[in-house]
């Protein structure tokens, strides 16, 4: 294996010296790394007209509800009564879009546009309208004056069009409401799409976020043979809401070094003069596309993957470009004041309304739109056609090109269980065999993502089918179990944000995947998961969007086995975050053993448009259900385990319930203790796999009806419920249930330390002894027998505690425990 | 103002050419940017001995429970029965610590050590022990053989010492359980500590996280006159748990460019040969410290702040350095297998035990520890003394050096309220006046942090006292309301992670501060806040730790005013995350108006060791309480608003309750509607400021006793509770309360769109009409009167909806609403 990858090239060929001297606040004639002039005068004129038509539309969207083509003098009555929208980054984005149109036509490219800067949707929406897609998708926004009027009016209007590239936006798979994920989404979309180029606008504000800052390193995980390319355009717009951006205020050399350091080849296009900028951008973008094709050809012809220093563009244009430089005495273009509505005073000040009108007319709408209000044919010709239009790229409607997974029969991977609670096995390691074959059967369609934990999480069996993608340097040691490969199916970087972003991009562009992570650190991506839930929920309301695969999050290294790593590694609260999202899109499963895990994962991998969260420990565990029992149990999602119960269908004295594998293990041990010490007790044992079974059927499609819930938990029998996560999640899910107050829920309550598993459980009251004692304390009729059993149990607990304290590990008997009946 | 800051210098002076050619996997003799040999042979010998003593201890901590100095041949009985701990990054960290010791002594430096790499505590702990601090703090871990034995045994042992730099670790303010925050914590600690140097070990795994990747840009926010310096040592250890690190597998030039691009001057120290590495590190570290002092002197002597390209070190040593290169046929040193316990087989394999013994003896413990088991005096002398010891730096026990805030009297900022619910005012803009004076009174002791939202959040008045710190370039436009300054009190970067990290570092090192953020995006730092909560909770258990200031998070731009920004900007669920943390450390306040906000913030700024979350809208609102009433209400945290109630102390027909300002506004409007349309109804109006009042007193120190709760909510009267956040949080907090089932809670339920505020509320059932109708539906005795009022209200609601739909804004009457009684 090569010790060093060939270095493609490390600096732009024609670095203009001027660039280094460019005062970073001064705009004017373009200066750029590539100084050719590929456009004819006629091309410049047409592209400028198209650009102006788009800029005109951006203003129309912000201001107008009537008179969309300014065929009458502008009056207050034409203006929206509440002005909303963002002007700041529109010009730079639209400018880039239009330049890519030229190259798509010239080279028949397959390009996806990813809009990173916040609130830049007018650029995307206006181009979608100009190339006809918006009207095809939303016929009432027709390509005529009335259609244009509606398009303007309903932008940022109740029930209307959002100011981000929301799911309603044709051609979008990246909303950008929360900033920071444009690059990782783009990479996700191009993995295994070898001909796709993701033209990705990256905001300079967005660039300050952590997730974006690390996502530039995604280029070490992209294979030039099997994957497409990401072409980032860092939009040095200069300002955020009220502040300059960091990257726009460091010197030129620093900025160039930064991106060379990230492994890219930055090409600069800087200025504000539209005609010269047209030439500069045309030349530079074409160079970048050509470079991309060359690298791909080199790798594909030779069959030897390498890591090119892929091209990227730094586009420095003033914020609010093409707008007025000053309004009254205040800077506007090239300052943060251009961020949102540029002249909000139009509603109150007639002279400002005049100013707006003049500005809008400067884009010459009457020249670009014909009598009917449609873009003139000469300009229409500038856009590509059909699915080559970026706003119609099917990749952005990933469900439409999705192929189903070819899944092996999960039952073939079953763990043999003849009697529940007797044999030990590693559920996760066993599942890894199934997962390996899922990988093997879907080598261009399914990937596994994780922040350097796949092996630690006992899933390394999947490397037999697909190794870890690695385009960094290789060392000799890597042969000794490194499991790295240029082409692989496992994606690992120590950034939960990047992993999640890649997976989201991969799924939204029509493929399948799974993220595995330590449970405590999944909170790092709370907000990303929230946003993804919102995306797929809204997408359900959009008729033309096809369903995508579910986003599967497998959590392991769970709280109850994070004893030795201590308090910082203990947090099962991700479930609370997920449970807040819409019931239409979230599902939470806690399979208690290996066969239930297989059945659950098979179900999740087949499902559509959900976020599935699956919690399962990676250590060895007692196994409870045979495959047949597991399928039955998981398809119900909740059930009474008859084999562990002795209530024989009568009303029990106590219900022992559990949700989560370690929790089930302890609850069942508690049940065994109770049945041993108090054999006359009638105990019902209940297990929950599908957490939303607990909630009322009116609140969640999986919820149990009242009579179903009663048939399991009764209305009046006390229930000791051992829960994997924070106990109050069960309280809130069962709110309103009759008999809710009979639930005594035990779970994690922020009581941790350096511990053994047993110690940690005792500290939180979730160990077998505490649970059994809870049960005794909640059955008032037990009397002396209860007190005596209670004392026995307490002594056993103390003995176990002492052992752990002296030896630094749990006593053997707690580890070798088996179900005795 | 200077348009360009002077560039300090952009490349190391003596870049050794060899460096670029260094095969990045090959180790051996040191190669470094600085090639001087400042150490005498004797110094090298002593420092190597000290280093070996520390390495010996790291192994002792992982393996031994008896025979700590190997005075007997090692047997299985001496070894812990459960082997836990991490060896991988210990050597590099300890090596760096020891080198800094030399310079602290030579230059009398004030240095804080921040340990970024995961599980690197043995390096920190062993050094703390060697320099005597550990025994001073924990006398039972005395500086003798028995103390050493205990020290070893209790590492990663139940109830013992953690493998991160936990709160129990002297000299630590950064635990590093979750990775990514070492640099931002370090910057937080040195702000306003002009003489402090934070020597910050950054793991190369950690470096892949988003938060770390962006935090390098903190150097644009550090003032060389008023702040200290951060000296990062990027520890290119090469591996994470099971993967190589990205930064260790890119070529040398890329790595150098990356850090030049981040604005640092990287100095390289690379190799594994201890004697030559000793010289290289001594020379390089000294150069860095000298550079730091030069830059500081230049700025301080001239009074002109500038942005130096601060020095940093890239330290490339093999993972598990000084351990065996191979064990059996598998790579160990310089590979990921050295991450955790290097030879776990010692428990089962006698030959492996021999191998371990040989390795441990190679560090020659008998040479470094005297008869009693104490480090020999010759080596003791290498460490600094007193508080100059990094493990005794008082900054790491920030509470011990904390000065109280000098707070103005918040009552002086009161909004005049003669009658509740009549006058409008902006609570946040009003609070900004108080905050400005807090800044003014505490110019070296208090900072405000935020991700580019301080102005948007209506807090810009604070710029009158302290502007936004900015060490990037300045443009002419900045004079036009840019509010930037070299020295300021407001810290803004578009990275919630960096803001939170800075604030945590600032507070933990003994100062005070506040973060302001949009509510929806605070989820980005869920995990950081979780970790901070865990830190301060554990710190409470550590006797020698003094209390620090609370970490205050002010959330605004809240869900109910994120109508126009749409669904992605709507998420009030941070409260659920916080409510999961220990009741000892979390507090949640939702002040309903301006005077309550003042009273709440005053309380929060005075408080200690909490995470306070305060939720308040930034728009204009009706004001309800006079300052006197507000103080009374906030000190109770919950109360009946007599002026809005007409139950006159009798049992009401309905309780109308609210928590949150917009929610209160609507609940009160609903109450007015009910009283207007159904004047015979007896209504009690309740408001909650302190959310934890709802929980039982046994669960949280702020919780109400049962009789107190009953006195407000009754046991049996229906209550319509309008809540700011997701409704089920109220259900879980009131779990177990008598009468809990009478609560009908309305709140946000993931129903959003592009809306007006009224529309958004109607969609979620939290508007005045829906609430009033809910009340009617829950009073069975109303009969026909109820039906008729219900119909009237429904018609009013439809009229308002239609207006919003047609005009794109809410009808005036809903905005101009006043309390009519």
UniProtKB/TrEMBL annotation, chains A, B:
Does this UniProt record's set of keywords contain Lyase?
yes
Q: Give the InterPro entries listed for this entry.
A: Phosphoketolase, THDP-binding, Transketo_C/PFOR_II, Xul5P/Fru6P_PKetolase, Xul5P/Fru6P_PKetolase_C, Xul5P/Fru6P_PKetolase_CS, Xul5P/Fru6P_PKetolase_N, Xul5P/Fru6P_PKetolase_ThDP_BS
- Residue spans making up a coiled coil are none
- Name the keywords, alphabetized: Lyase, Thiamine pyrophosphate
Please list the GO biological process terms of this entry.
carbohydrate metabolic process
Q: Which cofactor does this sequence's record say it needs?
A: thiamine diphosphate
Please indicate if the UniProt record lists Lyase as a keyword: yes
Superkingdom to which the source organism belongs: Eukaryota
Where do the Xylulose 5-phosphate/Fructose 6-phosphate phosphoketolase C-terminal domain residues begin and end? 618-819
The record places domain Xylulose 5-phosphate/Fructose 6-phosphate phosphoketolase N-terminal at 40-400
Q: Could you cite one Gene Ontology molecular function of this protein?
A: aldehyde-lyase activity
- Similarity remark: Belongs to the XFP family.
Record-given protein name: D-xylulose 5-phosphate/D-fructose 6-phosphate phosphoketolase
What is the species listed in this Swiss-Prot or TrEMBL entry? Dothidotthia symphoricarpi CBS 119687
State the taxonomy lineage: Eukaryota, Fungi, Dikarya, Ascomycota, Pezizomycotina
């Amino acid at each position: 294996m090569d010790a060093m990858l060939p270095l493609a090239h490390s600096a732009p060929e024609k670095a203009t010296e001027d660039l280094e001297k460019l005062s970073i606040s001064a705009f004017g004639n373009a200066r750029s790394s590539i100084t050719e002039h590929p456009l004819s005068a006629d091309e410049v004129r047409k592209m400028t007209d198209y650009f102006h038509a788009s800029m005109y539309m951006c203003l129309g969207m912000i201001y107008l509800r009537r008179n969309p083509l300014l065929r009458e003098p502008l009056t207050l009555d034409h203006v929206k009564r509440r002005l909303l929208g963002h002007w700041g980054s529109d010009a730079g984005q639209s400018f880039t879009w239009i330049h890519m149109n030229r190259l798509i036509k010239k080279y028949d490219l397959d390009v996806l546009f990813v809009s990173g800067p916040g609130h830049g949707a007018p650029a995307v929406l206006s181009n979608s309208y100009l190339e006809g897609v918006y009207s095809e998708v939303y016929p009432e926004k027709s390509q005529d004056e009335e259609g244009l009027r509606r398009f303007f009016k309903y932008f940022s209007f109740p029930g209307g069009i959002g100011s981000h590239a929301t799911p309603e936006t044709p051609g979008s798979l990246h909303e950008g409401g929360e900033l920071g994920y444009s690059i990782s989404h783009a990479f996700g979309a191009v993995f295994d799409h070898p001909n796709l180029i993701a033209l990705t606008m990256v905001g300079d504000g967005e660039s300050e976020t952590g997730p974006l800052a690390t996502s530039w390193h995604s280029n070490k995980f992209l294979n030039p043979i099997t994957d497409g390319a990401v072409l980032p355009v860092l939009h040095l717009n200069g300002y955020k809401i009220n502040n300059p951006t960091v990257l726009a205020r460091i010197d030129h050399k620093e900025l160039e070094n930064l991106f060379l350091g990230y492994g890219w080849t930055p090409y600069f296009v800087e200025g504000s003069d539209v005609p010269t900028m047209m030439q500069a951008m045309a030349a530079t973008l074409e160079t970048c596309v050509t470079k991309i094709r060359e690298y791909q050809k080199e790798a594909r012809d030779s069959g030897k993957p390498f890591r090119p220093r892929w091209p990227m563009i730094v586009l420095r244009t003033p914020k609010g470009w093409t707008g007025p430089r000053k309004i009254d005495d205040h800077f506007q273009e090239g300052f943060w004041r251009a961020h949102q509505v540029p002249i909000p005073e139009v509603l109150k000040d007639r002279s400002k309304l005049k100013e707006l009108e003049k500005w809008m007319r400067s884009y010459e709408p009457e020249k670009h739109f014909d009598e009917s209000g449609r873009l003139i044919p000469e300009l229409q010709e500038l856009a590509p056609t059909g699915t080559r239009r970026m706003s119609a790229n099917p990749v952005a409607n990933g469900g439409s090109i999705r192929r189903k997974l070819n899944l092996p029969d999960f039952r073939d991977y079953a763990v043999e269980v003849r009697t529940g609670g007797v044999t030990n096995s590693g559920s996760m390691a066993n599942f890894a065999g199934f997962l390996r074959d899922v990988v093997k059967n879907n080598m261009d369609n399914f990937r596994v993502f994780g922040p350097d934990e796949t092996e630690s999480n006992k899933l390394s069996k999947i490397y037999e089918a697909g190794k870890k993608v690695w385009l960094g340097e290789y060392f000799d040691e890597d042969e000794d179990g490194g499991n790295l490969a240029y082409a692989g199916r496992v994606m690992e970087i120590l950034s939960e944000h990047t992993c999640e972003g890649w997976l989201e991009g991969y799924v939204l562009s029509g493929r399948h995947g799974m993220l595995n992570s330590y449970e405590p650190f999944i909170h790092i991506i709370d907000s990303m998961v929230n946003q993804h839930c919102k995306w797929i929920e809204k997408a359900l309301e959009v008729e033309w969007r096809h369903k995508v695969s579910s986003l599967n999050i497998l959590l392991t290294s769970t709280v109850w086995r994070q004893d030795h790593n201590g308090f910082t590694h203990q947090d099962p609260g991700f479930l609370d975050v997920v449970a807040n999202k819409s019931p239409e899109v979230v599902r939470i499963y806690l399979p208690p053993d290996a066969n239930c895990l297989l059945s659950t994962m098979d179900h999740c991998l087949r499902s559509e448009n959900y976020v599935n969260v699956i919690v399962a420990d990676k250590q060895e565990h007692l196994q409870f259900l045979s495959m047949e029992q597991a399928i039955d149990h998981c398809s119900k999602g909740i059930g009474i385990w008859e084999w562990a119960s002795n209530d024989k269908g009568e009303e029990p004295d106590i219900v022992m319930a559990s949700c989560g594998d370690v929790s089930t293990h302890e609850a069942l041990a508690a049940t065994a203790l109770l049945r041993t010490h108090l054999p006359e007790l009638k105990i019902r044992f209940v297990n929950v796999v599908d957490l939303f079974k607990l909630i009322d059927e009116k609140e969640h499609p999986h919820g149990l009806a009242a009579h179903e819930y009663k048939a399991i938990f009764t209305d009046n029998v006390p229930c000791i419920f051992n829960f994997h996560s924070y106990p109050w999640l069960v309280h809130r899910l069962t709110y309103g249930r009759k008999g809710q107050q009979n639930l005594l829920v035990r779970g994690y309550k922020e009581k941790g330390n350096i511990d053994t598993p047993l110690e940690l459980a005792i500290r939180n009251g979730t160990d077998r002894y505490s649970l059994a004692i809870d049960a005794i304390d909640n059955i008032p009729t037990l009397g002396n027998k209860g007190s005596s059993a209670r004392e026995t149990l307490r002594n056993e607990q103390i003995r176990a505690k002492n052992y752990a304290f002296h030896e630094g590990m749990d006593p053997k008997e707690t580890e070798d425990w088996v179900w005795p009946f």
